[in-house]
Amino acid sequence: MRRVVWRNLLAHKVRLALSGLAVVLGVAFVAGTLVFTDTLERTFTALFESTTADVDVSAERAFEPTGAPGGAPPQPLDAALAGQIAAVDGVASATGYVQSPGVYVIGPDGKVVATGGAPGIGTGWDPAEGLGMTLTAGRAPAARDEVVLDEATAERTGYGIGDTVELLTPGPRLSATVVGTLRFGESGGLAGASLVAFDTATAQELLAAPGTFHGVSVQAADGVGREELAERVDAALGEGLAVATREEASEKRTEQLAESLGFIDVFLLVFAGIALFVGSFIILNTFSMLVAQRTRELALLRALGASRRQVTGSVLAEALVLAVLGSTAGLLLGLAVAAGLRWAFGRVGLTLDGSLVVAPRTVVAAYAVGVLVTVLAAYLPARRAAKVPPVAALRDDHAMPDGSLRRRTRAGAVLGVAGGTALVAGTALDDAPATLVLLGSLALVVAAIALSPVLARPFLRVAGAALPRIWGPAGRLARENALRNPRRTAATASALMVGVALVTGFSIIGQSANASIGSAVAERMRSDFIVSSAVTQPFSPQVAEEVRGLDGVASVGVARLGFVELDGEPTMLFGVDETTGDDVFALDVIAGQGGAPADGQLLVDADLARDRGWEVGETVAVRGVNGEQRELELRGIYETAPSVGPALLPLATLGELGGEPLDRWVFVQLAEGAGAGAVREAVEAVVADHPIVSVKDMGEFVQEQQGQVAQLLMIINAMLVLSVLIAVLGIVNTLALSVLERTREVGLLRAVGMARRQLRRTIRLEAVLIALFGAVLGLGLGLVFGVGLVSVLDGQGIDELAVPGGRLAVLLAVSALVGVLAAAWPAHRASRMPVLRALATAQ
Amino acid sequence: MNPVQETSTTGPARTASAVAARAESLTKVYGRGEARVVALDAVDVAFPRGAFTAIMGPSGSGKSTLMHCMAGLDAATSGRAWIGDVELSGLGDARLTALRRDSVGFVFQSFNLLPTLTAAENITLPLDLAGRRVEQEWLDTVIDAVGLQGRLSHRPSELSGGQQQRVACARALAGRPEIVFADEPTGNLDSRSGADVLRFLRSSVREMGQTVVMVTHDPVAASYADEVLFLADGRVVDSLAAPSADGVLERMKALDPRGGA
């Protein structure tokens, strides 16, 4: 039997290579994701471990704010603390340091040097060693207008020692001379972040407050272990301070980072899953076809005494070999994928250093996934192979028995009804869990796959009705060939269906999100101009200050982002001043009073109030990241509005609770009679000093917000292209195998006078029909998902349903094109077949 | 006789000449060096219009190769071949395809029909491929002659082997080709179905004025022809007019002393 397996593999190299490609791509994504994640983590771990302080002391956070872009701001410590720690037995030295995000380098082109979402870090030079900094050129900063840049930033901007560099800080914009370059840690990798070191006094002034630090870096005396030292320091200090050994500090920060980058993992693994799911159809199809083609051969084996198990085993053994080869290739391709991702991240500023990390887990996962999927997909055809009656070897025209579709139809119908019911229930009922909708959607996908062979016949008849009229015999043959084996057509189309359904669903969600953002912003915010950064970076309050003094400006409102605990639950919310609360946010107040919360008050939205059972006038306990506590009176409850967030605090209160003293939004209202154009010019002149922010009117602001959604959608769709790519492979595979199967037919057609062009057209039209079938099924499913998900997301920022009809039409057209592309190679092969040899091919 | 018509390869080719197809020093060599096999050795042959010619010979005598080369299915190594007035050598694939479609009819040993098309669609396939209009009167004559009136909407899987082969014969004749090449048309049929097919081929020649060339190794089949050509080692070695099955068998025995056909 083993010899049979090998001979078959060798005889069907091309076909197996094609179906193996599906395994390769799926495994490559799994492996690539894992390798990239490990590399990312290694980079960050190395980054954090670069800090060589034995023990780090910082202000304890009351809680860890989650989801904060760029992390929560550091809390200041009294400078006297360093002396206190230095006195602890076993401490060799204790140096206060200042280190905070919010310092950006402006490149020679006048633009902020991109950090790819990583923070622009400002720091005091002392203690350089404790903070992991090594001087590589020049000298340490010694005056207010001197700085040291990290090597990567210096290289990227071209700034050298002696050059003047412009810096954005949380305070004023600054002009300084580069006096040196530094390397961070061993490798110098900062994962995209930029690092600017000031002399300590300047750092305190810019980033903290004179006489305060963000932490104390402690070195142990000889013979004192870190843990022991940490314990001693902890015992010597009072409440409210976090004491961490180097390992603990590194671990904690890595964890935070992993959490904030975790979405990349999830994202990539989801696509790996899709790739494998789609790929399994191709494998199933290939083996089905190979088994069907080898009916006589398998029957001969049975006639010669092979048992059913041996026949099944031989097919599965072939699948296993394919799986191992495919997984190996996939693993290698995965390295390329990871390298590609690293390159792509590098392009946006997030540089990862060193070689790729291939953990044993990655290898195990790649093989496990590849082998499992392949063998599972080959199991059904293998079982079918065993059912070939030995007598088939003696007959000329035995076709593989195709089981009745009845059972499949019944199962599909039941699943479809169940899925549909779940979906409707999930969207109609207010309190239904979102998982109900997801389960319903999943059931519908499986139902669609099960029913697709049944649906294929009517679809192909109708869709193909016009083909004979337009393309004559080529059109008729194409339609008949597609109809010949509805299971095969359906399985081929299913691969495309999944991809199209996902793209459709996401397009609907995206379009709905855009429409919702547009109306939400337009309804909830009233401002003539908005100053904000496009990448949600906070910026200096100086901007608002300067704008306030301009002619023609009636009032200026600001909003800041903050994290507090409301009755014990961490919440991300806005702090607003009076102008913003009273004039800019147009809240739909449903209880109590609207407008700006006065000192000692807060406003919450309807969802939050309902969840917690709060009523107007009630007292809400609020705790800041710095541990400060306040009791605030609930002033009013407003209709939930995503653009405003779940709660509003007075600006001053948020500041007391440890909120960063940086603005997110500045709203500018025109004075009566002031020229909008002139005021805008004046505001733009102010903003010119702050390259990360820009001025926009409401229309532009809405567009910018929508642009973020569009960008996200683009990334998602770009990834989904992969599943479409695999679907193309599937169509190529099916067609190539079909052409091989019909070699004699092709020969006959050519002999009786079918031109090569006509033959190619026949195959192309068949491919287009299959692709359109998949696309139409996918569009239908995608519409159901999209509409279902939008109704679930109602109240979470997406409350309007919008179907991008144009884009879906394009999707359909692209699918047809996919068919044409997929047919290119099989059609070429078929048209090049020598007529005589094709005619002589054994059936 | 037919009037002189156009000889283009895109329309029905019809010439007044008495020869439907001919070859001059047609040679076909396979392989090289020690594996060199001369399948056709400078064959000169002409198939008269309106005649039923059978080609016989032992296995490996080159009879199938001769047919393939003369039908434009295979390229000869050297020599020339014509269908009507059109010379095959030097024609590209597109023109050869068009020539096969318009001027040649084929009947093969097995697997003659497209399983996805009905009998009627199979019959008109070459015409459809060419985009030519079906001459309904002629088509009816052909279908009557093969006796398939009631079976036109059936798919091949619903027809017997003999019926399938008769559909194939009808297809070969549907376009009024210059010449019909039949490659062992009865090879896969029982003797009764085979006789039906042979009678039809003969009547197409006698009554409809068609030209048929048939490759066979069955002396009974050959006896339906007007003339039998005998091939051995790539050469035409003999011929027999108005053959009988016994007469053919005698000649065959003389060609191959081992008696194998």
From TrEMBL, chain A:
Q: Does the keyword rRNA-binding apply?
A: no
Question: What molecular function does GO assign, one term?
Answer: transmembrane transporter activity
InterPro entries linked to this entry: ABC3_permease_C (IPR003838), MacB_PCD (IPR025857), Macrolide_Exporter_MacB (IPR050250)
Keyword list (alphabetical) reads:
Cell membrane, Membrane, Transmembrane, Transmembrane helix
A GO cellular component term found in this entry reads: plasma membrane
Coarse class of the protein's main subcellular location = membrane
- MacB-like periplasmic core domain spans which residues? 17-235, 489-685
PANTHER family reported in the protein's UniProt record = ABC TRANSPORTER PERMEASE YTRF (PTHR30572:SF4), MEMBRANE COMPONENT OF TRANSPORTER-RELATED (PTHR30572)
Write the protein's name: Putative ABC transport system permease protein
Source taxonomy lineage? Bacteria, Bacillati, Actinomycetota, Actinomycetes, Kineosporiales
Automatic annotation (TrEMBL), chain B:
- Give the Gene Ontology MF terms in alphabetical order: ATP binding; ATP hydrolysis activity; transmembrane transporter activity
Domain ABC transporter, residue spans: 21-258
| Cited InterPro entries | AAA+_ATPase, ABC_transporter-like_ATP-bd, ABC_transpr_LolD-like, MacB-like_ATP-bd, P-loop_NTPase
Q: What organism is this sequence from? A: Kineococcus xinjiangensis
List, alphabetically, the GO terms of the cellular component aspect: membrane protein complex; plasma membrane
Keyword set for this entry? ATP-binding, Nucleotide-binding, Transport
PROSITE patterns in UniProt: ABC_TRANSPORTER_2
Which named protein is this?
A: Putative ABC transport system ATP-binding protein
User: What is the top-level taxon of the source organism?
Assistant: Bacteria
